[in-house]
UniProtKB/TrEMBL annotation:
<dbReference type="InterPro" id="IPR001789">
    <property type="entry name" value="Sig_transdc_resp-reg_receiver"/>
</dbReference>
<protein>
    <recommendedName>
        <fullName>PDEase domain-containing protein</fullName>
    </recommendedName>
</protein>
<dbReference type="GO" id="GO:0000160">
    <property type="term" value="P:phosphorelay signal transduction system"/>
</dbReference>
<keyword id="KW-0597">Phosphoprotein</keyword>
<feature type="binding site">
    <location>
        <begin position="337"/>
        <end position="341"/>
    </location>
    <ligand>
        <name>AMP</name>
    </ligand>
</feature>
<keyword id="KW-0378">Hydrolase</keyword>
<feature type="binding site">
    <location>
        <position position="393"/>
    </location>
    <ligand>
        <name>Zn(2+) 2</name>
    </ligand>
</feature>
<feature type="binding site">
    <location>
        <position position="393"/>
    </location>
    <ligand>
        <name>AMP</name>
    </ligand>
</feature>
<feature type="domain" description="Response regulatory">
    <location>
        <begin position="22"/>
        <end position="144"/>
    </location>
</feature>
<dbReference type="Pfam" id="PF00233">
    <property type="entry name" value="PDEase_I"/>
</dbReference>
<keyword id="KW-0479">Metal-binding</keyword>
<dbReference type="InterPro" id="IPR036971">
    <property type="entry name" value="PDEase_catalytic_dom_sf"/>
</dbReference>
<feature type="compositionally biased region" description="Low complexity">
    <location>
        <begin position="168"/>
        <end position="186"/>
    </location>
</feature>
<dbReference type="InterPro" id="IPR023088">
    <property type="entry name" value="PDEase"/>
</dbReference>
<feature type="binding site">
    <location>
        <position position="392"/>
    </location>
    <ligand>
        <name>Zn(2+) 1</name>
    </ligand>
</feature>
<feature type="binding site">
    <location>
        <position position="561"/>
    </location>
    <ligand>
        <name>AMP</name>
    </ligand>
</feature>
<dbReference type="GO" id="GO:0046872">
    <property type="term" value="F:metal ion binding"/>
</dbReference>
């Protein structure tokens, strides 16, 4: 196969079109000739250019030895533009497979991740503009590789099949199938072979569709995160002196914990200090914790001794990197819903578990005659609750669910107006965990341990949706009655009770500001009211309904706090207290 015997079809992606109120603006019928067309014409027999996909494939059918070049619209270089380009590539590749045509992407985007995304979408090659002659001369190899690959599969498909006695030829197979097939005849090996071929074709198509779905889902997730998360790199030193460790530990153990006098790095250290002992718990020795890949080898710790030893040496670094990266998803510009709030919720969850004697784990009293509800909480549940607490508001945009729904944002549409932010926070958290290898924290995503861990994390985060607050208070009240009823004959569903207890703890922690010492709670109240007022200002600008809680002209700090304590916080705190008291 020579390049001079091949043709090239260039399919250009339409540039962004101006908004047409009367609908009269239509895309140009004939695109301008790209600068590299003359270079292609010097190598290939024929070069055609079009904006229309149908026309491109019509030309391809007329010219069997064709190569399809996708010229991307480089005017769209933001996240949405990149996603649109890759989606378009995947769509064209899917159609090109029917004609056995290799697709080469041509673009000026030099980002390696974008190049790989195009290849993962099915492109045979990726060429940077301006297109050089030496590169053009090698393009025909993509067509050669595609033809060779297809021939190999064709040869494999025409290989003889096995009968019950001996090897028979394809011709004999056809004859046998024709002469033995009747309404009562059993399925012969030959007939079974044809059915198997059908199933293989179906499986192949299914695998391709699922693969495309996964690739596009990954692209969608990337675009969503690019839009909603700042992801500003956090530079810092993970080392901590013994004096600083004692100082931070003292703050962590106090109900007067205040993140306002701590730096961002100190907040990260607080998280590590809280979570590190949980990861080192001997009761978690059945889990497989991935330290990450080093020198091409994935290191796993499966024994208690090895876990504790390696945790001190290496695993803290992985944990620190994860927390540092997760902290960068929080918007520092939010007065209230920022990383300091996440650490505050984590510290409160930690404090509650300490008061319940769930942690430290050596303080647990499993042999006690009287079993309390908190005894249902296992070390793996503590880890899940802590992960949920530190990630429960990841990438919070600074506005509430009602704003997202009323303004019909893509997030509201994506999550069907139900717990929009909480679902998004959970997705963001698990993306960060996956990035840092923590999706192997319970042995891998397919294991029962991981599924249970993930369920606890998600359930806990969804419980922070304040629109469902009263429903949760009722559930917790029913749980208190259920667990205190010594005459109950029904078997307690430990998993559901455990999930509700974790939800109750994180809910208390999420609104714990009002119960902190006044010098701490007053600061939190001011920040929360300011964030509400900022949303109200934006709602006024957009012309959408403004609730009294968000109207800067109607907000009264003292009244809002008294009302919140009386009608929201007290009911929850009282019911959780009833649950934790046990029988």
């Amino acid at each position: 196969m020579e390049p001079s015997h091949c043709t090239v079809v260039i399919l250009q992606r339409l540039p962004p079109q101006p908004f047409a109120i009367d609908g009269n603006i239509s895309p140009p019928s004939s695109p301008p000739q790209p600068a590299y067309v003359s270079t292609l014409q010097s190598v290939f027999a024929q070069v055609s250019v079009t904006y229309h996909q149908a026309e491109a494939f019509k030309w391809i059918k007329e010219q069997p030895s064709s190569l399809l070049i996708l010229d991307l619209n480089d005017q769209e270089d933001d996240s949405l533009g990149c996603y649109a380009n890759i989606t378009w590539v995947a769509n064209v590749v899917q159609h090109a497979e029917d004609d056995n045509v290799p697709v080469v992407v041509c673009s000026s985007n030099e980002t390696p991740s974008f190049m790989l995304d195009c290849v993962h979408a099915g492109a045979a090659d990726y060429i940077l503009k301006p297109m050089r002659l030496d590169v053009v001369k090698t393009l025909f190899l993509a067509l050669h590789r595609r033809r060779s690959h297809s021939k190999m599969h064709d040869d494999h498909g025409s290989s003889p099949t096995l009968s019950s006695d001996n090897v028979i030829s394809p011709a004999a197979t056809t004859t046998t199938t024709t002469t033995t097939t009747t309404s009562t005849a059993p399925i012969t090996p030959t007939q079974f072979q044809s059915l198997e071929h059908h199933h293989l074709n179906y499986d192949s198509g299914l695998q391709r569709r699922v693969k495309e779905m996964v690739e596009k889902d990954a692209l969608l997730t990337k675009v969503v995160l690019d839009i909603y998360t700042p992801m500003t790199p956090v530079a810092g030193d993970m080392s901590l002196s013994s004096d600083d460790t004692l100082r931070l530990q003292e703050k962590i153990d106090s109900w007067s914990f205040s993140p306002f006098d701590l730096t961002h790095q100190e907040l990260i250290h607080c998280v590590v200090l809280i979570m590190k002992p949980v990861l080192a718990c001997p009761e978690l020795d059945h889990l497989v914790i991935t330290q990450g890949k080093k020198d091409g080898v994935e290191k796993r710790f499966a024994t208690v001794t090895q876990r504790i030893k390696m945790l001190v040496i290496a695993h803290v670094e992985q944990l620190y990197d994860f927390i540092s990266d997760l902290s960068s998803t929080y918007h520092d510009g939010n007065p209230y819903h920022n990383f300091a709030h996440a650490v505050d919720v984590l510290q409160c969850s930690y404090y509650i578990l300490r008061q319940l004697r769930v942690i430290p784990f050596d303080r647990r009293q499993p042999s006690s005659v009287e079993t309390k509800p908190q005894d249902l909480i296992r070390p793996i549940d503590v880890l899940a609750l802590f992960i949920a607490a530190i990630g429960h508001d990841a990438a919070h945009p600074g506005v509430n669910n009602l704003f997202l729904i009323n303004s019909a944002t893509p997030l509201a549409l994506l999550y069907n107006d139900r717990s929009v932010l909480e679902s998004f926070h959970s997705m963001t958290l698990f993306q960060m965990m996956k990035k840092h290898g923590l999706d192997h924290i319970s042995g891998g995503t397919a294991t029962a341990n991981y599924q249970a861990f993930r369920k606890t994390v998600i359930t806990s985060i969804l419980a922070t949706d304040m629109s469902l607050h009263n429903e949760y208070v009722i559930k917790i009240k029913e749980q208190a009655t259920r667990l205190q009823d010594s005459s109950a004959t029904t078997t307690v569903d430990e998993e559901q009770e455990r999930l509700l207890i974790c939800s109750a703890i994180i809910k208390c922690a999420d609104i714990s500001n009002v119960a902190r010492p006044f010098f701490v709670s007053s600061k939190w109240a001011e920040l929360l009211v300011e964030e509400f007022a900022c949303q109200g200002d934006l709602e006024k600008q957009l012309g959408i309904p403004v609730s009294p809680l968000n109207d800067r002209d109607k907000l009264i700090l003292e009244d809002s706090q008294i009302g919140f304590i009386r009608f929201v916080a007290m009911g929850l705190f009282q019911q959780v207290r009833q649950v934790m008291q046990g029988k």
